[in-house]
Write a structure and sequence with these properties.
Mean pLDDT: 81
Oligomer: single chain
Number of helices: 11
Structural class: mainly beta
Low-confidence stretches: 1-43, 514-520, 754-759, 780-803, 847-860, 866-870
Number of strands: 40
Helix content: 10-25%
């Protein structure tokens, strides 16, 4: 028993000792479980502590502002989502602002961003993003008022590159986009919206290339991108070697490829990329694009350490295209642009037709690199010594234009000297190409030299030097300086050696009649008052508001209305809304004329002024130019006009007219046909139609002809009128309301016995409207001598506040010879020859005498034009 006890006695402790072993095993398994489960938790906790979003968000915002000058904001704090051992960093309402001056406050907004981040690489200071998800991004690309794009994220001057992630490198394995859009503002309120359908990117590992697939819509056109980019880790400086780029783009039926590599993708440097594109039909891509077909582009873009890449072997071409939508009958056969490099010549070739007539352009220009700013090109870049050559030949049918020359300083386009020669056998043959009817001017030959005024460069303006031109009906020459700035005056001088306006105007295209059925019929308004003779059509003075011009015009010889004009000189100055013609001088048909005129559009409505002085116009050519009977005309006529008004239509200008008009002539001869044209209806109405000695063809002496009109606020008063032909003298008074277009005139044609004052005066009134004048005979009160100053009653007497004012029809007091007083008024203080004595005039014919015929009382004129025989 004792042995057994001894045997077993020690065992009892062993059994008792096994219980602790069993307890230790449980602790071991518990410890292992804590290591397996707790260690990752501890690691995650430690990692999340290292990358605390509470401080990470403000740091990102500060870094963005330092780097771009933009504000990066979130609607809520950044947070970790711990639904698995792969933590996810989330942010809501992400926005990257635009600087001040842009219409939209934000460049980019996203509803939500989430990024699954690998845990262990955090300990190696790497942020490996397993999956980046962007929810509804909205990217708006636009320019501010200065033309700067909001996509320009260049750091402000002096900014330091921030290190918001504490030297953490970033790598990406997968990316996806849910919805969103990219909006491009194209100006004028128009925008181009690319609506994203999907975008995914996937890499086999963080160091493997990223495969991209994207689908979107641009308007009604599908847009896709597919291909492969190098690993995103290279953007954080991880790895070396070429970073591949292989992308395919498609927009509708158009396609493009971009292939090659970059050596430093993080800096977008060291690239060597080939770009190809194919567009079967350009008009299918967007409304309004020309119908160019079979467009191809092939070129290589290489980094040369400057903003402008090297361009190698550029080749662009277009195939046969029907461009009748631009111009009816216009077609392109082929087009090509080739460029071996930026330091090589640029070659352009176009061929086509216009309504069957051949069109072609051949041009060889200097190296494009010479035109680019020095800051765009590598240091020490040399596009070739010497000038920038320009050679161009353009032909349209039988018309031809050549440009040949060079530009001394290509970068600023200064020192330009380009000889231009043009030969156009028939200008009207180019109407289809111009899109408008052109005059049929023949045998045009032009020569000039294009320069840059003051050596400031063609960017600032152009100069036209030593212009010479000839054509059938004209020969001219001149110079021009045409700066582009609105505040800089355009200076032009043009002299016509000869100018046959009759011939040139005869070749002017006539207005095309409206197609039948296209014009909407004017609704009948039987109760509406008939329109006046003076137009209410608005005058377009808008051209004068921004005009800044100094123009000198001259013509040695000019023909108009088959009348000769010589020694014409005109100076036009326009600036600040005022256009002034001062002076104008010339030899018009019959004599010298000087004039000045102005237009002031600074006020609304515009103001106009005119001054004309013609002291001695020969009657014959003057009457012929006015299409009046000029037979037997001899003598001179002095004309003075001072007028001003304000208005935007001819009717408004007439209604506001202020003027003084004087016509004076003495001791002249006219033809009886002219007297009949001017006064035949008045003589008939006065019962003096038998005075055929002054209305029949043949010379009629005119002792004096004087007229003085004074106008204020559109009411013209006939202050003086005397037409003294010897046998008959005609006096007149009254006036007209130009705004209301109404008349109130009294005319007194009076036969004269030999050497005596007029006797037996008759009075004819001219009343009514301009469109429907009323001519009637009316006898004044009987007087033994002279003519009554008593106002004659007017058939147009009006009452009430709407009555249009009219001058009273008052005839001057008869003194036996009214010519001297009326001439003085008409000459406005200027001196002039005296009329012949009354005694020298022939007496009037009496009824029943030779040269007399029975009175013929007509029905009166249809309107003022018919009253004057026109």
């Amino acid at each position: 028993m004792s042995d057994d006890f001894e045997l077993h006695a020690p065992r009892a402790p062993r059994r008792a000792a096994r219980k602790p072993r069993k307890s230790h095993g449980r602790l071991l398994w518990t410890g292992l479980a804590l290591v397996v489960v707790g260690a990752p938790i501890a690691v995650v906790s430690y990692a999340l502590t290292r990358l605390d979003p509470a401080r990470f968000g403000p740091a990102l915002a500060q870094a963005a502002e330092q780097a771009t000058g933009r504000q990066l904001s979130f609607t809520g704090p950044l947070r970790w989502s711990l639904l698995s051992l792969t933590p996810t960093l989330e942010a809501d309402g992400v926005s990257l602002s635009n600087p001040a001056g842009f219409p939209d406050p934000a460049l980019l907004t996203l509803d939500k961003v989430s990024a699954k981040i690998a845990l262990l690489p955090l300990f190696e200071r790497r942020v490996d993003i397993l999956d980046l998800n962007l929810v509804t991004p909205h990217l708006v690309l636009e320019r501010d008022g200065a033309g700067v794009g909001d996509w320009n994220l260049t750091p402000p001057p002096g900014a330091q590159t921030p290190d918001a992630l504490g030297h953490y490198a970033v790598a990406l394995e997968a990316v996806s986009v849910q919805g969103g859009d990219v909006t491009l503002m194209t100006g004028g309120g128009r925008k181009l919206v690319l609506a994203l359908t999907s975008l995914t990117g996937q890499a086999d590992s963080f160091t493997a290339p990223l495969s991209l697939t994207a689908a979107a819509r641009l308007g009604d056109l599908p847009f896709t991108v597919s291909g492969e980019l190098g690993p995103v880790a290279r953007l954080s400086g991880i790895g070396t070697g070429p970073w591949p780029v292989r992308l395919q783009f498609a927009l509708g039926t158009a396609s493009a490829t971009l292939s090659g590599h970059m050596d430093q993708p993080r800096e977008a440097a060291g690239y060597d990329l080939r770009l190809t594109a194919n567009v079967p039909a350009l008009e299918s891509l967007a409304p309004g694009l020309p119908a160019l077909h079979d467009l191809t582009l092939d070129t290589v873009l290489r980094d040369q350490g400057s903003p402008m890449p090297a361009i190698d072997g550029l080749a662009f071409s277009a195939g046969a295209s029907d461009l009748s939508a631009l111009r009816p009958g216009l077609a392109l056969s082929r087009a090509s642009v080739t460029l071996a490099g930026l330091d090589a010549p640029l070659n352009i070739a176009l061929a086509g037709s216009m309504a069957g007539a051949p069109l072609s352009v051949q041009a060889t220009l200097g190296a494009p690199g010479a035109l680019l700013p020095a800051g765009w090109m590598p240091a020490g870049y040399d596009a070739g010594a010497g000038n920038f050559p320009v050679n161009l030949v353009a032909q349209a049918g039988s018309a031809k234009v050549t440009v040949a020359g060079a530009i001394a300083t290509p970068e600023t386009l200064s020192g330009a000297a380009l000889a231009v020669n043009a030969a156009v056998p028939d200008l009207s043959a180019l109407s289809g190409l111009a899109g408008a009817a052109l005059p049929g001017w023949k045998n045009i030959v032009l020569q000039t030299t294009i320069t840059d005024p003051g050596g400031n460069g063609l960017y600032q303006g152009i100069g036209i030097d030593n212009l010479t031109g000839t054509m059938d009906g004209a020969g001219f020459g001149g110079d021009a300086t045409l700066p582009y700035g609105q505040n800089q005056p355009k200076q032009m001088a043009l002299n016509f050696v000869s100018l046959d306006l009759d011939k040139l105007l005869a070749a002017w295209p006539s207005a095309q009649p409206a197609a039948p059925g296209n014009a909407a019929p004017t609704p009948a308004t039987p109760d509406a008052a008939p329109a006046g003779l003076i137009s209410d059509t608005p005058l377009d003075f808008g051209w004068a508001k921004g005009l800044n011009l100094q123009l000198q015009l001259s013509a040695d010889q000019m023909s108009l209305g088959h009348q000769a004009f010589t020694a014409l000189q005109a100076q036009v100055n326009a600036a600040g809304g005022i256009v002034a013609l001062s002076p104008f001088t010339g030899q018009l048909p019959g004599g010298a004329v000087s004039a000045a005129a102005s237009l002031d559009v600074r006020t609304d409505p515009a103001k106009l002024a005119l001054v004309v002085n013609a002291p001695a116009l020969s009657l014959a050519p003057l009457l012929a130019s006015l299409h009046l009977d000029a037979d037997n005309a001899q003598g001179i006529l002095a004309v003075q006009v001072k007028a001003s008004s304000q208005g935007d239509t001819p009717h408004q200008l007439a209604a506001a007219l202020a003027a003084q008009v004087g016509l004076a002539g003495v001791n002249a001869t006219v033809d009886g046909g002219l007297v009949k044209q001017l006064f035949g209806a008045v003589l008939d109405k006065a019962g003096l139609g038998y005075q055929t000695q002054i209305t029949a063809p043949g010379p009629v002496p005119v002792r004096c002809a004087a007229l003085r009109v004074d106008a204020a606020n559109g009411v013209a008063t006939l202050s003086g009128f005397d037409f003294d032909s010897g046998p008959v003298t005609i006096l007149a008074g009254g006036g007209a309301n130009l705004g209301a277009e109404t008349l109130n005139l009294a005319l007194s044609p009076q036969p004269r016995a030999a050497g005596t004052p007029p006797n037996g005066p008759a009075v004819v009134t001219l009343t009514g409207s301009f469109r429907a004048p009323v001519l009637a005979e009316q006898a004044p009160p009987s007087q033994e001598s002279g003519i009554s100053e008593t106002p004659l009653p007017s058939p147009l007497a009006q009452t009430g506040p709407q009555a249009a004012p009219l001058p009273q029809a008052v005839l001057p007091t008869g003194t036996g010879d009214d010519c001297p007083a009326t001439l003085a008024m008409a000459r406005m203080g200027a001196s002039g020859p005296a009329p012949e004595p009354v005694s020298a005039l022939a007496p009037a014919a009496q009824p029943g005498q030779a040269g007399a015929s029975p009175a013929a009382h007509g029905a009166g004129p249809a309107n003022l034009n018919s009253l004057l025989g026109q």
